[in-house]
Amino acid sequence: MKRMRDGSYTIKPTYKVGEHDIVPDMLAKRALLHPGQVAVEQRSSVGSIRSLTTSELQRQVEYTACGLIGLGVQAGDAVAILAPTSYEWLLLDLALLSIGAITVPIYESDSAAQIQHILTDAHVTRVFTATTQQAELVHSVAPEHTVSVDSFDRGAQRLIARAAAGITIENVQQRRAAISSSDIATIIYTSGTTGNPKGVALTHANFVATALGARQILSEVIDSPETRLLLFLPVAHVLARLVMHVILSGQGVLGFSPSIKNLLPDIQAFKPSVLLVVPRVLEKVYNAASSKAGGGFKGRMFAWSAKQARTFSVASAKTFGPGLFKKMRHGIADALVLKKIRSVLGPNLRYIVSGGAPLATDLAHFYAGMGITLIQGYGLSETTGPISVQHIGKNPVGGVGLPLPGNFIKIAKDGEILVRGQSVMPGYYHLPEQTAEVMPDGKWFHTGDLGSIDRKGQLTITGRKKELIVTAGGKNVSPEVLEDSLATHPLIANVIVVGDQRPYVGALFTLDADMLPDWLAKHGLPQCSPTEAAELPAVRESLEKAVERANKAVSRAESIRKFRIIDATFTVENGYVTPSMKLRRRKVIADYAHEIDALYGGPVSAEQRTKRGLFGRAKKN
């Protein structure tokens, strides 16, 4: 770790990215070194397991690349993939990148309008989908330059196989030799809160450097033959896609769980040693365990055991570690409750990698106290995923790690996190003005996130610059601190903290329909709908206690004074949550303005807005 004169922190890379180092080379090099090593395990439709060695996978990539050439895919063509996380996604991605094409991911949850924008903006020539239904949706909005849409369930693989006839591996190798590391490998469309998504252009060098940086600091995970990672997050998201290639570049085994409905059976079958998650998944696991414990003695036992896990984790981070009695209590908690939760996550699980959003401190201590090494990081699509990652043995709860080797991180005067380096995008696709807005000097990328760096270079996220609330009294409030704490309550499906230009801070809650039945039974209440439950005194009392606990982490001026339970659900499908499970705050505030007004007895007047200015700060005369 080195602190530079400009106040930034960096770690020197032990590797170099060459002029022709490209993403498929990482698998190719492993296939040469460890040809018989298992790289991928697949579950068939009947449940049997099929293993693919690195050399077998490499041959399939090359064969698929031959087929794509036969179909007429040219170097520089943008080809979109609309499919769940799967082996087919991986195979197509590597094959496309092997012949100089550009992979354009499309989320399964994207609307017709979003798909049309992506196809038009990236000038996509061909689309591969998982299902006929998805292909029909794409056909309905495809522009003229999108000449072909093929689905896996209608024989896309057979089409590629037939097209491979007459194309040789030498043809693929010629294409690969012509690719530069500075060539665009992918265009990822960010799930923005307003307007059309922007295309983040990432090069082969971005991916290779980020993957090698991750291997430098997490070698004991990535370069171990014992590593087994089950991927279930959408690979349309940059983090999951990067991790997919990182695992293949090391010595681990990659597995896929295409449907979240089958995740637990897939975990039991695959037995991962590593899980890549977003915080919402960890919240769901915790709440499900709490709900299953129910009320009475079992409920009290779970609450006590969870407390022991948290306090043990806190003590373990201190110089002298936990004392004898704390170790004894933790041992009892482990025998009674904690080991049962671990068994659900698989007998081999050693690491949980959490990204996409900050993880609540209490929740992080709970999992760390279960004996699982929690690795947190921070990054965006524009930084090829992680720009900072925790090192094993240097992973304090609350932090998001040190700079990834080859990158620099510093904090601006207003608290914004600025980054530059090998992982940072060259720019938004065909959007020079928007690129200049986030990289005004052409070097430092302005993330829009607020944070701090300690003397050891450890980065901590404190909020989102654009989401900062400024109350009528001029108090700056970061809503994420309160929201992260409240999100762990089993009844809360979604929470949004509000209060911009208002006299105090408030909150809107939606109830979790899946967790509600167990919670009602646990508390001896009759079953009812979320709408009816919102009127129950016991529900409001439980939420009031959760608000009181969350308020302890902030000052009085930042505390939630009032809240409302609204009859709604925020999901990816209805557009209120991004595919990476982040709340689209502006959309919620706009669509539920009447509910927010009800917290304060009415809307903000035009006169108040004029006095406060556009962002809630007093205007100067």
UniProtKB/TrEMBL annotation:
InterPro entries: AMP-bd_C_sf, AMP-binding_CS, AMP-dep_synth/lig_dom, ANL_N_sf. Gene3D superfamilies: 3.30.300.30, N-terminal domain of ligase-like. GO terms for cellular component: membrane. It catalyses: a long-chain fatty acid + ATP + CoA = a long-chain fatty acyl-CoA + AMP + diphosphate. CDD domains: VL_LC_FACS_like (cd05907). PROSITE patterns: AMP_BINDING. Keywords: ATP-binding, Nucleotide-binding. GO terms for molecular function: ATP binding; long-chain fatty acid-CoA ligase activity. Residues 29-429 form the AMP-dependent synthetase/ligase domain. It comes from the Bacteria. This is AMP-binding enzyme. It comes from Schaalia odontolytica F0309.
